[in-house]
Amino acid sequence: xxxxxxxxxxxxxxxxxxxxxxxxxxxxxxxxxxxxxxxxxxxxxxxxxxxxxxxxxxxxxxxxxxxxxxxxxxxxxxxxxxxxxxxxxxxxxxxxxxxxxxxxxxxxxxxxxxxxxxxxxxxxxxxxxxxxxxxxxxxxxxxxxxxxxxxxxxxxxxxxxxxxxxxxxxxxxxxxxxxxxxxxxxxxxxxxxxxxxxxxxxxxxxxxxxxxxxxxxxxxxxxxxxxxxxxxxxxxxxxxxxxxxxxxxxxxxxxxxxxxxxxxxxxxxxxxxxxxxxxxxxxxxxxxxxxxxxxxxxxxxxxxxxxxxxxxxxxxxxxxxxxxxxxxxxxxxxxxxxxxxxxxxxxxxxxxxxxxxxxxxxxxxxxxxxxxxxxxxxxxxxxxxxxxxxxxxxxxxxxxxxxxxxxxxxxxxxxxxxxxxxxxxxxxxxxxxxxxxxxxxxxxxxxxxxxxxxxxxxxxxxxxxxxxxxxxxxxxxxxxxxxxxxxxxxxxxxxxxxxxxxxxxxxxxxxxxxxxxxxxxxxxxxxxxxxxxxxxxxxxxxxxxxxxxxxxxxxxxxxxxxxxxx
Length: 566
Prior knowledge:
Structural class: mainly alpha
Keywords: Cell membrane, Cell shape, Membrane, Peptidoglycan synthesis, Transmembrane, Transmembrane helix
Subcellular location: Cell membrane
Low-confidence stretches: 562-566
Membrane topology: Multi-pass membrane protein
Organism: Nocardioides agariphilus
GO molecular function, one term: lipid-linked peptidoglycan transporter activity
């Protein structure tokens, strides 16, 4: 059946908005990689690094636990609805939401700082209770005290960003994290200047109070700056904030009822991730008192590898989903399940057109990628610990992408209760697999074992979520175009497989394969990736993978437009 003009225009609008966000995300990711490089150079990737990484990660986890689900998934449909239905264009509703969020997040942040030792006890392995790890435990608690105020800044940043998204101002939220990364880079450069890279003998040690303050306060300052960057854009979008405390009878109850299931969803998700962090923290902690064996992987290796493999998800999938959600919400609000299923199916194929080739190529480029990013300073002797985790993560990201996008369909239909039960299955699979796999392996394979558990959970989750949504749409004459998706996946996997085989052939024929220098690693990485992309694009044209050409044409158009104006 040919697509209607409105459907094509909606799809083009999603792709165009996604291109704006993806450009900001791409720049943000590159600055994030520089931060990751400096972090490895300064702190290494063993227990010493884990202390700061865990202390600086927990605030984001707690923000997501306490408010992230509501802000990210529930408020956008509600803000869009208030803008279209309220006489004041949603101004009063927006002001009430901002006021309520600021009060809640501020109070919670204060309580968390006071309760930091108990909070960190949830996320740390029992190994940290050993006497020989007392100083390390004190350090991670100190980092938590400095970093837990980030809960407020994370929450307000996401809320204000979603207010802008509801007004179709997608760019600022994607570009603002660059400011955070720049602050973090400055903090780490200053740390290297004043303290230098941690010596090899101290890769398992704690920090001094001055080091804790420098890194902890600097990390929180970066999140605060990220929030402040949004303020001018809010004014430009016509948002005039005035505190409103009249919360009764204003529609907030409906939002919070929808949010109840989303909060439960996030709680389940974060419980699973807390188990992952707890297990990961034990990987490097076990090195203390066991002969100082540096061959151990923990949370730093797991989280930094995850940061890298999330590139296509962050650049393409999140951008598509953020631009898509208002469209899906509008289609769901008017009961047009056929249009909703079609929109979601097309965006799903577009995202997989990027994610699948990346996942297939990842094991080929993982050694050189690890060398370029982490073979610096304090991590130069242990950077190879990243390679296996990088190689294994690609498959998991493919299934996570499917699951992530399908859930946007449930949110647009306000089926948050269904999402909760699906996520219970994902979390249970992740927890069970993580516990079993970590117990069956040694400390050096702690991070890779957790990667395998992550993949298993989203294999299950993507299948369950897809099948449930397909049945729900079929009941209302909608569909996810499963046959089209399967045919597309067969073609894209074949194209990606051939392209990766060609790239591997290039890698095997390049001179200097054993050259350990950064320049050689960059050259190999660039040539192998270029060969893969070139072969894949040629095959995409030959195999008529329209989704690939749509992505390229849209992003190329965004790049040409500013040049044309000049």
